[in-house]
Structures are given as C-alpha cells and as structure tokens.
Amino acid sequence: MAAESKTKYDRQLRIWGDQGQTELEKASVCLLNCGPTGSEALKNLVLGGVGSITVVDGTKVEKHDLGNNFLLDEVSLGQSKAKCVCAFLQELNDAVKAKFVEESPEALIERNPSFFSPFTLVIATQLLEISLLKLDKICRQSNVMLLVARSYGLTGLVRICLKEHDVVESKPEHFVDDLRLHNPWPELKEFAKTMDLNVTDPVVHKHIPYIVILIHVAEKWADGHGGCLPTTRQEKKEFKDLIKGYMINMDEENYKEAIESSYKVSLPHGISSQLRQIINDNNAAEVNSASPDFWILVASLKEFIENEGAGEPPLEGSIPDMTSLTEYYISLQRIYQAKFESDCLAIEHRVRTILKRIGRDPDSISRAFIKNFCKNTRKLTVCRYRPLEDELISPAISELQKYMTDEDFSFSVSFYILLRAVDRFTANYNRFPGLFDNEMEEDISRLKTIAVGVLSDSGLHGSTLAEDLINEMCRYGGAEIHPVAAFIGGVASQEAIKLITKQFVPLNGTLVFNGIDQKSQVLAV
Amino acid sequence: MANSFSEPARWRDLDKLLARCGNIVGPGFEPSPQLRQEIGEFARVLVVGAGGLGCELLKDLALSGFPNIDVIDMDTIEISNLNRQFLFRLQDVGKSKAEVAAKRVMERVSGVNITPHFCRIEEKEIDFYNDFNIIVLGLDSIEARSYINSVACSFLEYDSDDNPIPETIKPMVDGGTEGFKGHARVILPGMTPCFECNIWLFPPQIKFPLCTLAETPRTPAHCIEYAHLIKWDEAHSGKTFEPDDPQHMQWVYTEAVKRAELFGIAGVTYSLTQGVVKNIIPAIASTNAIISASCALEALKIVSGCSKTLSNYMTYNGVEGTHIKVTEFVREKDCLVCGPGTRIDLDTSTTVSQFIEILGEHPKLLLSKPSITHRGNNIYMQSPPILEEMTRSNLQQPLYYLMGKVRKDTVHVSGMAENNGKKSSSLRKLCVVFKGIAAADVATQMDTAGNF
Ligand SMILES: [Zn+2]
Predict the structure, then answer these.
(1) Which of A2, A95, A487, B137 has its CA 20 to 30 A from that of B162?
(2) Closest CB to A477 among B10, B16, B292
(3) B340 CA to middle of ligand 1, Å?
(4) B402, B149, B12: which is closest to B20 by C-alpha?
(5) CB-CB: which of A11, A326, A517 is closest to B284?
(6) What is the pTM of this model?
(7) In this model, does residue A467 exceed pLDDT 80?
(8) CA geometry: angle at A1 spanning A21 and A46, to 5°?
(9) Cβ–Cβ below 8 Å for B293 and A475
(10) Of the listed ranges A1-10, A184-193, B167-176, B429-438, the one predicted with least confidence
C-alpha cells in the first residue's frame, strides 16, 4: 500500500488491518436507488476505499431531493440522480472506480437479472417487498451478497440476505485467553517446575508470572482432591485462599493477578457448543472439490480435535500481558508459540491430505490462511439467513408472539409489521399511505385493514397494533428524513464492511430502527 | 427570509414530520406548515468539534432544517482524517477544520449559514455559549466534554424550592465513537444526568507502571512508552516531546526498536508507536455516521417537539452483530456541576481573597486561581490583565457586600481543578449562604433578585 494511503486509512487499518483493506479494495458494490439512505451508505464505503461502486437510479433530481440528500445540490436539478450522486462520491475518493446506471432498479430486477452477478455486494434501498423477493432469489442464485436498507419517517430497517457467511476473524471484544491451565502440556509443566513459589528473593517472588503460579497451585490442589480441579463456589474460594497463602506481601501484583484469573483453571475442557455445531455441520462432513476453503479447514479441525487435539482445539498461542520478569514472560511466550506452531502443522498436514483426497491441488490453501484459521478456531462464526420468501410463507410465529408481548420490542415489531403493510398498501394504491393531507383519515383506516391482514398472515391472529403507530406511519407519508436515512445508511455500510472484510460478526436478524425513543431492536424473524 | 431555505418543495419530506400532528410527540409540539420556518428563525445550534462526528453533524443538522449553525474547533486538517471526515479533501490539509467544514456545507446546502470558530473552546467567553438554543457535541476528549458540560450547566438556575427553572435549561446532545462502538446521549441539565453525573462511564486511561517500563518490559507498548516517557527526557534535556513532529516520533520508534531487541520482544512497528504515544482511537466513517445521525435527530426532536426524545443514553455496538441499547441513567443528587451548587457557608465579613482561599481548600472543589462572577458581574477576574486590575480592589472587600447583601445566591467560579489526577480548567457553581442573616429577609431578597 502506498504511504499516502497508509496514512489516509490509518484509523481504519487499526480496526481491520491490511487484509481487511485489501478485501475492501477488491470489492465491487452496487447501490439500488440513490436517495439519502443509499447515498449515505455508499458515501461511508467510498471514504473507506471500496474498490468500485455502481449507482443505479432511474429518476431525475427534484427540489425535494435537495432537502434530504447532501450528495445533490442546486446544479443537479433536473439531471440524472445516479449521475450526480456518482460524481460527488468520486470527488470523495479518487481511488474508487465510480460508475452509474440510469435505470430503475425494479426494471433491472425484472428484465436483466444477470446484471447483478458481477458484484460482491448489492445494497438495495427503498425497494418494496415485491421487488426484494425477486432480488433475493437472483442474488442467492449468483452468490452475491444482498443488504436491504429502508428509511421511512422515523423508522426503517436493515437486513442481510445471503445463504451463508463464514467468519474466521470474528474479533470478539471479550474472550477468555486459551491458556490450558486446566490441562497444561508437558513443555509448559516442565517450565513451571523450574520455578519455586517459595523462592526467597522477594524481587523474583513478585515477578513469577501468574500462569506459573496457577499451574503450581492447581497441581497442589489436584493432589489433595483426587486429581480434580475446583468446581464449586466453595472450592473456588478455597483455591483462591490457597494462592493467597503463597503471598509474602499483600501488594504482589502477580499473585493478585493469579487470584483474579483463578477461574481459568476451572474452565470446561474441550470445545464450546458453538464450535461443536460448526464441526458437526454437514458442510464439514462431506467436503468435496466444490467445498469452500473454510469448510475444508473445518473438516481438518474436526479431525484434529478427534485425534491430536484429544478433544481440544489447536492452541491460540498468544498470552496476555502479566506481571513478570521479562525473561520469564518471553520464555512463556515461546512455549505457547511453539505449541501453536506444532498444532498448526498437524492441521496443515490434514488440510493437505484432504485436498489431495478430493482432487484439489494440496497446496491450494496457503499456510498463512491455515495459521490464521488456527489462531481463531474458538471464534469461528457461521451466519445463515433464510430466504425472504420463507420468512413470508412460514414466519417465525413464536418469536413474533414473544416480541408482541414484550414491552421492549413492541414498537420495533409493530414497525416491522407496519412497514410490510405499507408495502402492500403501496402495491395496491401506487402511492405511500398518508402521501396527501386530504386523504389522511381514509389512509389510516386502509392501512389498519392491511396491517390486520399482515398480522394474520404472520400467524398473529387477534394481535393488535397500537393506533398511535398506525397514525404515525401515515403521518410519515413515505418521508425520507435525512438523519434517519443517515442512520440507516450508516448501519448498512457498517454491515457491508463486515461482510466484505469477512471480519467481525454481521447483523443476525432484521434491525428495526425506532426513531421515536431510539429503542431499536434486532428481530430474529 | 425569502431564500431557498424556506422553499416548501425542498422540504417536502421534513415537513411531513413538522407540519402534521401525531400522538407520539414531545411536550409543546405545535405542528404547522410554518414550524420549520419558525425554527429557522429562532433556533441557533452550536456544534462543538468539526472532526469525524462534527462533519457528519453539520450535514445532518443542515438537512434537518437548522439554517443557523455555529461550529467551533481548534484543529487543523490531517491526512488521516480523510477516511471519514468527508467534508475535507487532500488539498485542505493544514487548514482549519471548522472553516473548511462550514464552507463545504454552505456550498452544498443553499440557504444554510454556518459560522466557524477556529479556536479553543476555553477561549470563548462563557456568554458566547448562552446564545445557542442547543449545543451538540462531537468530541473525542473527556476534558472538552467536561468543560462544555460545566458551561451549559452554569446557565441553569434553580427556584427557591431547588427546582430547575425551565427557561435556563441549555439542552446538550453528546456523541462519541470508538471503532465499531459509539454512544449518543441527551443532557437536559437539571432534568437528566449531566456529563459529570455519570463521569464513571468514561474510565481514565490505564497507564503502565514506570517500574515495568524501566525494569521488566514485556510488550512492544512497554518498549515504546519507555522510549517516549523515560529515554526522551534523558536524551533531550528540557526539550518537550512533540507527538506531531515526525522526527520526534521516528526517534521514539528507533529507541523502542532498540529496547525491544535488547529484551527479545517482537512487534514494535512505527504504526504501533504512533498509536501508543498519541493514544490513537480507531475511527471509521460508518460509526461516526450512525452516532451523528442519532444526535442530529435528537436535536431536531428537542427543538421542534416532533417526537419523543431519547431518555437518555443510547449505545451502539456493531462488533458482534448489532446491539442498540437505551439506558435511562439517573442524576447524581449532589452533582457539583448540574445541582443547585456546592453549598458554601460564609460570614458576612468574609473578603473575596479569604473566599478564594476557601475555594482552594474546599475538599470537593480544590479550585486554584479562580475567577468569580455573580449574576454576570465580575467579582474578581484572573485574566485578562486589564480585568484583573479592574477587579483587584474587590479582593479586600467582603463578598456579602459585593453580592448586594443577599442571604443566599449562586456564584460561578472558574479556575483550575483536579480531574482524574489532571489539572484542567473547570467551571463550578456555588450556592453561597451567609450566616446570621434572618430568614425573614429572604422575601425581600427574592424580589430584588427578580429585577435582574
Ligand atoms: Zn450533574
């Protein structure tokens, strides 16, 4: 990367690294409809340096566009909206390849489905259900990721539509280090033995790393408890007291750290239920030449856990900072690193064998990729999203019912139902409810009738929506309020970044924005 | 005002919210086709900060129907701003953020008027801040937030029953981001917790113990901080380290690499050196956009009443899925900043200089070099020199006399106070009560007070 780009992107490289940036720069994103919601979403991606963008919109710029879209100005009036938005986006970052197509997204979906196949990601904004259903099918068929974003008055939604998204670097904020204190391997045990907790030199005593302290105390505990480690609350307390007994002075940071981390010796052996689910996934059971690299690695991981790993995943190999003499700490780092390397090698061997077996070039998966996978096995995440059509045909009734009766969710789930009702209304009347002041009363009762229909189609017979919210939807009259659009567009771009960089965990469900009191919720429907 | 800002066609969408009645709205919402224009005429918004949040806020507020905006920021544009501060271009590097941001938004949204202030927030007179109907904060420092909060809270007055007087409430909306996370909050001083009430939400940065840096370094950051905090002073007697000087940074990096090699520690890079030394917070366009949009929407709702407002703290976290949570924090009853004021009992004979001594020793205040004002009158000012000279003679006068012989009243003092172990400028509100004044006098005092 050029020095100037390094500096320009410095603040984001600290989040997703060179690897993430490379993915972003390879990506090609298509935006459908460049109103404020879409324009804002794309703006954030262009600033970050996405590879290329294609803006699709068939409308001309009108006066009302200037009141809610920053990417358009006086000069744009009467011109192609796609062209004007595209020109401003290009001004933001000349490294991005910006294109526009002056055509209605609905027409493209209808007549030219292959238009979408070259893109990495399609961001569909302000489209009605009827078009989204078709677009979802098209994108799934051609393995293009789809993000749906909608702003409507003080509400809106963002959702992801794709078959499967596998994340190696999910980068969770809080994750317990894999130190294997409950089950130290021989080299680690050996190293711990070289240190004596009763050493007389006070400087050495207060610089024994807590890993070593815990291994010693755990061994002592196990000797007195038939080989078992503390499990009950009482035992854990006694274990802490046992550690305390070694302190010669109450301000020894290393012992304090050992007490704070003492729960790590009692961590359950083996793998988490989340990881178990992944290694038992059908995709890992039957890998073939068409399997994605991710699943080949999962298949190798599964074999490793069942063989060399003896029930454990490969060691991650990194240790947190802790009070210690430099040399002790560096030695520990090396011991953990060496175990990581040897686990990696075992997995790599299995990967190569599997590749050979399924008729692929055994070297077609790089060592760097395998290593990165091994560093993250406990954090692997698989996200799947069911087709939009399924959601409409077989709604998650029990979830919906739960939301309807939960005060925290009632606004969000009502907005979800009402947004669908608005789409049906619009399909019927060819305009948004509440568009005209003089038809407000009629529109309120029409929307209510339609909403009752959506409720019963969703299996929520007898449920009612608050009249106030039905009024609100008509009050909005399809308005795209700039800050709401900027919020929805912002969330869409955030999810786009996660999908494109294949880092962090994307939104799992439908985010319903609640601009009334900001209590937005993610619905699993 | 017949400019393009008042054209109804342009504001078709926003007017749906402002001109139509609804049942879920704020108190005092009076929808009408004129509401937007009325807001345009009376509402003045101040945006504090023209960085990642500030750029977004200016755009969002201009497109939320606020034609009169001021923006204050002392910073100049750097290349590393360009990945998110979308109002700036490469050729703007080195120029004032406030000035360029104001100009760009005015170019694109016709009819909007943005006044930039290229200076430190402390440089402005306190009264400057009182001219705004709402203050929106797009800052990344705790100190700056704390300062603006104390200024906004200083305008707050309480009635004799210690209830906040509504006209004196200066609403604030505050946003903050870090990586994929952020918050937006609404502060109505006297009604909802102020920044200081929940200061614990912003824990101070953890520093490495010096003995770790000097004797037992283990991580690359330890090596970098050794070079930055210890080695620099040893090698450059008296010369202060300038984090923005690339030569200084290069020196620290080189020294950190040497130290890391000496101890067998891997991982010191130039980028990490910058990150550790400047305490760089990762920042991206999308999070800033989300948080700013929330803040601007709240500003619109507070000023227009077109919907309920956030009560009172929203967090967004996009690291694992998307989590948005609203928490209703409560006020700290004895908050020094937004409460009726720290009560100080004085004798009627206490002079201003004795009062200054009391402020320095008061355990809750520990305020040094205070300037003192009472109902807009300068009792004693530390600066500028001309004001100091004019007010110096007051030092030997009894405060009771200078305050117009009231039994109890609010006094504002600004000076240096310790916050999280760091000295910073602080504004404090005091409730001064003179001992030995009969309560019967109070009624007459209240009448006099009402004449101000
Ligand atoms: Zn407070």
Answers:
(1) B137
(2) B16
(3) 10
(4) B12
(5) A11
(6) 0.92
(7) yes
(8) 45
(9) no
(10) B429-438
| B60/A contact by beta carbon, under 8 A | yes
Distance from C-alpha of B450 to C-alpha of B177, rounded to nearest angstrom: 43
Beta-strand pair B313-317/A121-125: unpaired
CB atoms within 10 A of CB B325: 15
Residues of B in contact with A69 (CB under 8 A): 63
What pLDDT digit, counting tens, does each position of A375-428 carry? 999 999 999 999 999 988 888 999 999 999 999 999 999 999 999 999 999 999
Using one digit for the tens of pLDDT, what is the confidence trace for B158-199?
A: 887 889 999 999 999 999 999 999 999 999 999 999 999 998
DSSP string spanning A369-433?
HHHHHHHTGGG-EEEE---HHHHHHS--HHHHHHHHH-HHHHHHHHHHHHHHHHHHHHHHHSS-T
Distance (Å) from CA B339 to ligand 1 centroid: 6
Q: Tell me if B148 sits within 8 A of B269, measured CB to CB.
A: no
This model of the complex carries an ipTM of: 0.96
Percentage of chain B exceeding pLDDT 90: 75
Residues of B designated catalytic:
211
> Edge-to-edge strand order for the sheet containing A510-514?
A97-101, A52-56, A28-32, A121-125, A145-152, A155-161, A510-514, A521-523
- Residue of B103, B192, B218 to mutate when probing chain A, most A C-beta within 10 A: B218
Question: Does residue B83 sit at the A interface (CB-CB below 8 Å)?
Answer: yes
Ion ligand 1 — residues with CB under 5 Å?
B 194, 196-197, 335, 337-338
Q: What's the pLDDT band for B447 if we cut at 50, 70, 90?
A: very low
Chain A residues within an 8 Å CB radius of B314: 518
> Which among A200, A222, A209, A321 is positioned nearest to A255, based on CA atoms?
A209
Q: Using a CB–CB cutoff of 8 Å, tell me whether B275 touches chain A.
A: yes
Cβ(A184)–Cβ(A215) below 8 Å: yes
